[in-house]
Amino acid sequence: MKPIPFFISVARIFAIGALLAVGARAHAQTDPLPSWNDGPSKQAIVEFVQATTTQGNPKFVPPEARIATFDQDGTLWVSHPMYSQVMYCLERVPAVVKEKPELKNVEPFKTVLSGNREAMAKLPMKDLEKILAATLTGMSVETFNAEVKKWFETAKDPRWKRPYTELTYLPMQEVLKYLRTNGYKTYIVTGGGQDFVRVYSEQTYGIPPEQVVGTAGGTKYGYDKSGKPFLTKEPRLLLNDNNAGKPEGIHLMIGRRPYAAFGNSTGDRQMLEYTKAGDGARLAMLVLHDDAKREYAYGPAQGLPETKVGAFPQALYDLAKNQGWAVISMKNDWKRIFAFEQ
Amino acid sequence: MKPIPFFISVARIFAIGALLAVGARAHAQTDPLPSWNDGPSKQAIVEFVQATTTQGNPKFVPPEARIATFDQDGTLWVSHPMYSQVMYCLERVPAVVKEKPELKNVEPFKTVLSGNREAMAKLPMKDLEKILAATLTGMSVETFNAEVKKWFETAKDPRWKRPYTELTYLPMQEVLKYLRTNGYKTYIVTGGGQDFVRVYSEQTYGIPPEQVVGTAGGTKYGYDKSGKPFLTKEPRLLLNDNNAGKPEGIHLMIGRRPYAAFGNSTGDRQMLEYTKAGDGARLAMLVLHDDAKREYAYGPAQGLPETKVGAFPQALYDLAKNQGWAVISMKNDWKRIFAFEQ
Lengths: 342, 342
What we know:
- 2 copies of one chain form a homodimer.
- Chain A is an alpha/beta fold.
- Chain A has helices at about 5-30, 40-55, 85-100, 110-115, 115-120, 125-135, 140-155, 170-180, 195-205, 245-255, 270-275, 315-325, 330-335, and strands at about 65-70, 185-195, 210-225, 230-240, 260-265, 285-290, 325-330.
- Chain A has 2 domains: about 35-80 and about 160-335, HAD superfamily/HAD-like (Rossmann fold, 3-Layer(aba) Sandwich), CATH 3.40.50; about 85-140, no CATH class.
- The interface of A and B includes residues 210, 216, 220 and 247 of A.
């Protein structure tokens, strides 16, 4: 009867093994995208990740090449009716004028100080650029970072009465984490200011500053009175990270073509084209703002002018269908939009 | 006597624990820098890594902030008497002239085609720039990458008769690995071409393309006849990654101040200053080429003009001593210089 204990122990090991296997399978089946409704969008993401990360799959992508890029405004967080960075610049104007009182009666600063939102909305691009230059350049990198950080601590979105950094889309946060868990390096590729977004990207999205590509100006190296070196932000544009500037920025800052790219407007078209033009499996997706109740509706046929930044005109919708880019319907694909929702 | 087995098992657990502890200590004591001689340089590196990665140490640096930057030419590999990228550009001239025969009798192409090294060495900077523009721009990013890759497969250093990528310094490869093992992200910050270095950085140094910061030109997004998008390299300078351009490039591409920086010439001065100006523990080191026998000697008092790129004049040596930057003597600090040496 000596062999019996041996068989028993083997049986026990098998039983434990089976239990572990069940546990592993249960773990693998945990939904990585719980805020997404089942449907073609969710399926496209899951199929892409499974195909590109499964050894032996013809679409397998080696870990070092796994790059995914995300537009920010309207793709990762709310950008309607006004980008938070524009809000920042407008709200910084009083402080700028306090330091330079000679600007008080000079346009466009005068209009911004008046608080007349209707007049502010009508300011031409040239005037907006003056405001951006005055509020985003001329100071040291450290001073700028501290000012932006401080602003985010108190600034609130007027509709939800919450800090802007709480207005990120939970389903997209899940995509970021799902991709990272599967070895993808996630990047923000934004038309917004690179330095601006870098201040909160790590805390807000788990994306470190070095993985933020954005519209970037030059800096100038110099020394303070004590001889300590510092960098001053200059009004010299190095990269306009919109439209064709997105693939150009990706090449400059990353040097590899992404395997997945997410956007929501015409400014993302070239990034998606460039991503899709690579070999093997490539995922290109556009977030369609069609949920007037839970967020906003400004997609095709919402009557927005085609030239408006952040717009999603019918032509883009048609292009997406033609190019095989998936269109994410906020209304139908997202079970939950914000983490603070019940 | 019942308690005895209990004490015995406790004693056994302690004994096993002690063995494990010894094992761990033996592992910790494995020399991470075996090609370095004991001395102040090696000690500075080890002390920096231990201080910044030990929880509870006042100099502890959180993993996400661990950034280390390395100049390439003369710091990570041989760059004397000629940078390999300059060799690449000169050796590409015949192919460029074959495509554009009208350049055959035009300077500086005529001189380069003549093969007269003495005349080539005398070409003014303006002419060199023409050669760089003709060989580094005008083609698609993919074509350029393929050409550089192909060149490195056959090009050899004239002294060692080996591919340039074998002429990396083993002690510096050990530093790169040692830092990475301890959670540091290692970056190349080179005056050389960003796109050029990115072609071989991963294979040669374990540094992915997105962690190479270098002198960078713009690209232009466009479409080929079939409608496929591609990027063309343009002769439009975005970043001259030398001198003050190094901290400016670090801010643009990384957005964080490094905790450690390594260089070998006046072109690295500002990067080291900027690194050292940060709070807490910061390591700044310069490689001094003082080994005429095993490599080259062109450090202080080697008679090189102060303005020569890659030079290490006496003034830099004095500055290093004054600023607390460690100077690495190739002759005294490095037991072995190349991996191919016995």
